[in-house]
Amino acid sequence: MKISKRVTWSNKIKKYKVHPLKYLEPESYQDVVAAIREAEQTGARIRAVGSGHSYSDVAITDGYLVNMCRLCRLLPLKKEQLKAAWQTQPLVEVEAGITVEKLNKQLDKQGVALINMGAIDNQTISGAIATGTHGAGRHLPALSGLVRSMVLVAAGGKTYRIEPTDGITDPSQHNEEDITLIQDDDTFYSVVVSLGCTGIIYSYVLAVVPRYWLYENRSVDMWFKVKEKLANGKMFDDYFIKLNGKDVKLPVRSIFIVVNPFKVKGEHTCMITRTFEIDKPPRWRLKDGTRAILSSILSRVPLTFYLSLFVVNNIPRLVPRMLETSIKAVRDATYINKSYKVLFQGFEYIASQGHGSEFAYDRHQTTYLEVMEEIFDKVAQLAHQFKLYPSSAPTIRFVKGSPAYLTPEYQTDVCYIGNPVLVRQKGASLILNAYQDIHLARGGKPHWGKITNRLDGETELIRHWYPKFETWRQTMLQFNPAGTFLNGFAERMRLDEP
Ligand SMILES: Cc1cc2nc3c(=O)[nH]c(=O)nc-3n(C[C@H](O)[C@H](O)[C@H](O)COP(=O)(O)OP(=O)(O)OC[C@H]3O[C@@H](n4cnc5c(N)ncnc54)[C@H](O)[C@@H]3O)c2cc1C
Predict the structure, then answer these.
(1) Using one digit for the tens of pLDDT, what is the confidence trace for 66-113?
(2) Is position 496 within any domain?
(3) The domain spanning residue 21 has which CATH number?
(4) Which residues, 6 or more positions from 118, have their beta carbon under 8 angstroms from its beta carbon?
(5) CA spacing 20 to 30 A to 383: which of 79, 167, 198, 328?
(6) Can you tell me which atom of ligand 1 is nearest the CA of 489?
(7) Which residue CA neighbors atom 11 of ligand 1 most closely?
């Protein structure tokens, strides 16, 4: 195991920096056990970290910081220990530190794929699952919904294989040395999304699906029309696309909407990205396999980012036009590729310079549409009063409800509203606070990995949103009785208090 002292670790947007007592890169499950035992002996706290892509301080500790980057292998699945019905199902076991990007490539080689993922692939699978990372698709789960079994190393280095009550492992066949099998819904749905507070996850068994292809269509429409179609459900109707030279009507797999928060020519313009599952096209032309070429190139070029930042900070009145142009640049763009390439939404350079918050609302209520209108009003007010023009456009995505106790979509199909802002925009925190205040007043539930500072002191809300919070907390204390895996974030949210 690589061990360093005097390392400065910061999250990717460099908002949070820390000098941990020890910085460790375990190479095996035994290394994780040893790291936890050593931290406990010295009275230090310990926490696993993934790629550091969370915007919040959820991954920070000044004790032992365990970077999972070397634990990134696909493991042989122990089929003989599974119940008969599961032995023929497509499952893979992976070490927790594998990035989504590497996992996708490895799965592709085996002819399988993830059913969904977030908009980027730089996260580790454990970092993404631990904060409830989701993609788009009202019938599709977040990444935590793919987990069928996981190996958790907890206090004392004790190790558990944790599964739902009707889990995949046949208890009579389970023979992993030093690993205790727990098959219990309360334990599983508490640990799967637990922000690193229950211990260090060493591996997951994930459900995968046979490799599939996606067709992505990006179109432009006016917000008032989109809003109406969202309210009456027509937005989710089957949709005509041009496939192999023919017009075909297909079920929409996912919808991702980006809305210009400024009115240009009297209206808010939206970019709507729809995906459709298709068979591999008989003729696959290079032009189908690349997104709108100019915007793809520009999104990778730092110059584009610096130009945008310059405009935002120095000629802010141009921001509404700038957003309008970037939304319209992808009008009618078609992109066909293997699933994971389409699910990766691009905008690499600019995305890594942004941060933001994201809040979930019951999809079956219209509150989220009212919240969007409130955001537009707030944006207009900030621009008018303070000449502060938010650099980025709000987003809308839908995600299927989840049984995991601490996910914003717990038992509810949700609409997520995202509010990105460039990190280096002057006044960025003021803008993000204004957005968060709207969401908190409207009952939105925050994404744990994104900016949540306005939640400080709102601990009652967390108990209110999550009816299973006390079960989650009791489970967390079972694996973490001395608070070894807590950090400043967990304490601010008082996740250890009844
Ligand atoms: C450009 C960009 C785009 C994004 N797009 C999306 C999106 O489309 N959808 C979405 O939902 N989110 C999105 N996010 C948020 C991101 O997916 C989450 O913040 C995710 O948690 C980051 O993963 P990570 O590997 O960087 O984890 P980190 O940020 O390093 O850690 C996150 C948490 O996981 C814990 N953790 C990590 N590994 C382990 C382990 N092995 N055991 C126990 N705990 C562990 C950490 O302690 C921490 O609490 C985006 C972020 C960025 C920067």
Answers:
(1) 999 999 999 999 999 999 999 999 999 999 999 999 999 999 999 999
(2) no
(3) 3.30.43.10
(4) 100, 128, 133, 134, 135, 143
(5) 328
(6) 49
(7) 133
